[in-house]
Amino acid sequence: MNSALQFQSSPYTAFMQESTVDLGNGIQLHIEAGGNPDHPTVILIMGLGAQMLFWPDFFCKSLIDHGFRVIRFDNRDIGLSSKVRHKGPRLNAVKLMGRFALGLPNDGAPYNLYDMADDVALLIDRLGIEKAHILGASMGGMISQILAAKYPEKIEKLGLLFTSNNQPLLPPPFPKQLFSLIGKPESRDEDGIVNHSLKVFRLIGSPGYINQVDAIQTARKLYRRSYHPAGVLQQFLAILCTGSLLKLDKQIEKPTLVLHGSKDRLLPPSHGKAVAKAISGAKFELIEGMGHDMPPHFIPQISGLFAHHFKS
């Protein structure tokens, strides 16, 4: 690890330390690291509009206990990382979504997922890591696929969780789930945002495993840490202006494990299967009963599968 970086104790998690890393491309990423610096590194990449704290502490701790150093971070435009101010014309998301579903190219977003993958490549360099295991969830899984195809020399193995390669004609997300993610809350005050977050958790989460009290506490913590809805929309536009990753998947030569929940109503399991099919030698595992989230119930199983994959 780069010894010049200043780390402080994380205000959220006893076993993690936080720092801000200047990538040198106009973006600063806020990161947290935990575990023994001499152990192999796993970099966790989160999904659309999701701060790094969406990687549950229990999950990070499980990977650390399996013998890894764990790094999670806020993507650009979210949490405590740099926000991107967009000067260009407003884009029509509905029109872009239609073209995206058919596999037609889109452009005009302030940045795309290739730029976000470049952020992670620069982060690896800045941290002084020779090679890292990459584990991406949802949009973070899309960024991870680009990273593995473009920067194979920086990557050991690839883990993907409830993600997609956005190839044309995959079954679209259920509309209610998608629009809950990019929709507007009824009010902009803390309670309005927390209620909206709760609705999202219920719609995309694992049926029967949503803990109401935990969900409310998490939503409050995230709101107080950072609230930046413009960033969520810009990340969504980044996905729409990146399009299909199918060609890139064919270039990936890293050992890859794809996990997907059987009850995922945001990205149905066929998305994960399409990714595993496109990447040579990739393994696919369906997690029975899991949605588009990581409830404590499933964490021992998920962390065990990824730890085994990264070690084997």
CA radius of gyration is 18 Å
CATH class: Alpha Beta
Strand order of the largest sheet: 1-2-3-5-4-6-7-8-9
- Count of spatially separate domains: 1
Percent helix range = 25-40%
Please tally the helical runs, counting DSSP H or I stretches of 4 or more residues: 11
Mean pLDDT: 95
Task: Provide structural commentary.
Keywords: Hydrolase. This is Alpha/beta hydrolase. Residues 40-293 form the AB hydrolase-1 domain. One of its GO terms (molecular function) is triacylglycerol lipase activity. With 312 residues, the protein is α/β, with parallel strands linked by helices. The protein has a single domain (8-311), classed as Alpha/Beta hydrolase fold, catalytic domain (Rossmann fold). The chain has 11 helices and 9 strands. Strands 1-2-3-5-4-6-7-8-9 form a 9-stranded mixed sheet, with helices on both faces. Strand 8 (256-261), helix 10 (269-278) and strand 9 (283-287) form a beta-alpha-beta unit. The protein is globular and about 50 Å long. 44% of the residues are buried.
Brief overview:
Residues 40-293 form the AB hydrolase-1 domain. With 312 residues, the protein is an alpha/beta fold.
Name the features.
nine-stranded mixed β-sheet, Rossmann fold, alpha/beta, 312 residues, 11 helices, 9 strands, globular
Protein topology:
Elements: E1 8-9, E2 16-22, E3 28-34, E4 41-45, H1 57-65, E5 69-73, H2 93-102, H3 113-126, E6 132-137, H4 139-150, E7 155-161, H5 175-182, H6 190-204, H7 212-225, H8 229-240, H9 246-249, E8 256-261, H10 269-278, E9 283-287, H11 299-311
Parallel strand pairs: 4-5, 4-6, 6-7, 7-8, 8-9
Antiparallel strand pairs: 1-2, 2-3, 3-5
